[in-house]
Specification:
single chain; mainly alpha; 0% strand
Length: 69
């Protein structure tokens, strides 16, 4: 099950430099891009969380990556 948008793990993964070594390559690439965008424009955090949640919802392999967050 994909956590809700208000789950603190989404914010933590996009605002920290936490280790993503267990995540799939596609998830790592997306999170790296989203982290850069959030760093450049912190007000976009909610939008980027929604983008990451949508990716995880649409891609079953990424649902396993959420457990590593």
């Amino acid at each position: 099950m994909v956590p809700g948008a208000d789950d603190p793990r989404w914010k933590r993964v996009l605002t920290s430099q936490s280790d993503l070594s267990a995540a799939s390559l596609a998830t790592k690439i997306l999170i790296a891009r989203l982290r850069r965008e959030v760093a450049a424009r912190p007000a976009s955090l909610g939008e980027k969380i929604a983008e990451l949640r949508e990716f995880v919802t649409k891609n079953a392999f990424a649902a396993g990556d959420v457990a590593a967050f």
